[in-house]
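Key idea: predict the complex, not the pieces.
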Amino acid sequence: MKNSCSSVSPLIERYFDRQATDEERALVERHLPVCTTCSEKLMALEGLKNALKAPVDEALQEETFPWVWEKIEKNIRMERKPSWWNLLRSWLDLSYLLRKRVWIPAVATAIVLALIISPFLFQKTPSYLEASVVEYVESDTHNVMVYDLETGQVTVIWLFEEPEEETFSS
Amino acid sequence: MKRTTILTIYCSIFFLFFASTAFGQVQTRFRVIRASNVGTGVDPSLGDIHGQLGSLFSFTSYRLLKDEILHLSPNRPASISAWEGRIIIETTLERMRRRDVADLRIRVARERINILNTNVRLSPGRTVLIGGPKIREGVIIYAISSNF
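Result:
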């Protein structure tokens, strides 16, 4: 059976794209040596392919995409190994805490606690052994005497109603 | 599960709050003494300060009227009355400077009139004697000592 151009010509593009079946490919390959028109059509397709491929290849050679690959590798690694934060969240199951409804009372409680604790955190710690035990004394109605015993363990604050009062032993 | 977690967190917060409040308490021993020259003798329960009383004052008799342990909390006044409520000593824990050093604000009132305002620092082993207010047969002496 002689292969006519009318039956082979539609197969040229499929043959060029390597989508032809074995029978179609055999048919085209038998026809091409004897048909100049179809051969020229195939050559034209190859020429078009080269015309398109050359600038693309040239552009790819000039362009470097290592960062693209690094990014891809990083994503692959992340998919394989979850971050420590995700591990912690999954372990503690904190998803409920991340809701706004929980954070408002939690923050309020934290502020109240901070206000309670802060005076104890920022207080000064001077030396106590040398300082006086009585820091302040005031009386509008009496004369006041402050006396430290020599032993250093007893401090006396005495109220005198009259200056000439004699209460202390001589 | 989630509710349990939230409940646990809140319980922890409230435990810390109440624990800090409890730790802020100070036990202080208050003794009310009547010193006079009527009779002689020293109350046996005043043995630890008998020497100081004898060396300081010229009274012949020391009687213990009250002996109380007060649990002082910051900014919560505690008071002890004497002489049928006519003399009142009100003590407020201002703050704990350290674990064993307490700042006390003390107010003594007689017949509802302030006769003394003072701030003292109490540490272990130390006693503060506040005396002088006269009563019928002598004077009142408050002995304040740390119990922490």
